[in-house]
From TrEMBL:
Protein name in UniProt: Uncharacterized protein
Alphabetical list of Gene3D superfamilies matching this protein: VSR Endonuclease
């Protein structure tokens, strides 16, 4: 009986299989165990095509549960030959339990905290809001002040390598960090990006292939593709991203926002497209007043001025 689809013919399986010639002769749902290779760390594992097809390719070496920003900072410290202790706990720094610091540098006497978006969004209606976390942040900072330890909180509210590196360079850590090897940092970051051929994403993006086309080829959503590229410091905005930096006006109260990003942060919208669609006349409203329920109307600032 002829094979309906070989491993080689399956776009997803072909990226991970080691022996391409063997892949041309084996069915994509076969139970025969063969060798597979992680495209990120090159670790090999033995699984059947059927299992990989059903459950996806998962590399145990790359299954790192630390946050993106922690892995970035850890690699920076390694590259600069700085001794550190991760998840450092001091007996007297307690809130229900002993609180961990992301990193402690004994020689420099510095505690480092990598603060994600949840540490900065203090709106009580936000999905990130957690008063316990905010309280523990305060306890940590006060503990360091009391015990003459330098406390450095890095703003990692954006999972963007360039953004976080800039925040680090503008902190006290700039006095001790001199090496910023982006290739080394990329390798550290890639250990968490599972089931994705990162090199393929970067190559396609550099060639100018559209996100829609990359999405079709990889099965990844555009948002995920952009997120990965930003984490690797490889993201170059396409023409459409320019819309997000345009000034907009909320017509309900004529409030002007410097960018669409600024506007969506205030009204707690999930996507920029909602406001863009209103500004282009393709929908009537985006967001609403949390107290009155009034729906918000928007316009590009340039259009607003012309009509005034």
């Amino acid at each position: 009986m002829p094979i309906k689809e070989t491993v080689y013919e399956n776009d997803y399986l072909r990226r991970f299989v080691k022996d391409k010639e063997q892949a041309k002769k084996l069915g994509s749902s076969s139970t025969q165990k063969i060798l597979w290779v992680c495209p990120n760390c090159k670790t090999q594992l033995v699984k059947s095509p059927g299992e990989i097809k059903r459950r996806g390719f998962k590399c145990k070496v790359c299954a790192d549960n630390r946050s993106y920003s922690e892995r970035l900072m850890e690699q920076l410290l390694k590259d600069n030959n700085i001794f550190y202790i991760s998840q450092m706990r001091f007996d007297n720094c307690v809130y229900k339990d002993v609180l961990p610091f992301d990193f402690y540098l004994p020689k420099e006497n510095i505690c480092i905290e990598m603060h994600g978006e949840q540490h900065y969004d203090v709106r009580k209606n936000s999905k990130w809001y957690d008063d316990r976390m905010l309280f523990s942040d305060k306890i940590k900072e006060e503990y360091c002040l009391k015990n003459e330890i330098d406390y450095v909180a890095i703003n990692c509210s954006k999972s963007d390598m360039d953004y976080i590196l800039e925040e680090i360079k503008n902190s006290k850590l700039s006095d001790i960090l001199n090496i910023y090897d982006k290739n080394s940092l990329k390798n550290a970051v890639m250990t968490r990006i599972l089931n994705v051929d990162v090199k393929y994403l970067i190559d396609q993006h550099k060639k100018g292939i559209s996100f829609l086309e990359i999405s079709r080829e990889t099965g990844l959503y555009r948002k995920k593709i952009v997120s990965i590229l930003k984490k690797l410091g490889e993201y170059n905005p396409r023409g459409g991203a320019k819309n997000n930096t345009r000034k907009v006006v909320r017509l309900n109260d004529n409030k002007i926002f410097g960018s669409i990003k600024e506007a969506i942060d205030e009204v707690d919208l999930k996507q920029e497209n909602n406001i863009v669609m209103v500004c282009r006349g393709k929908r009537k409203y985006a967001g609403r007043n949390p107290k009155t329920g009034e729906k918000y109307r928007w316009a590009y600032y340039s259009d607003y001025i012309e009509k005034s």
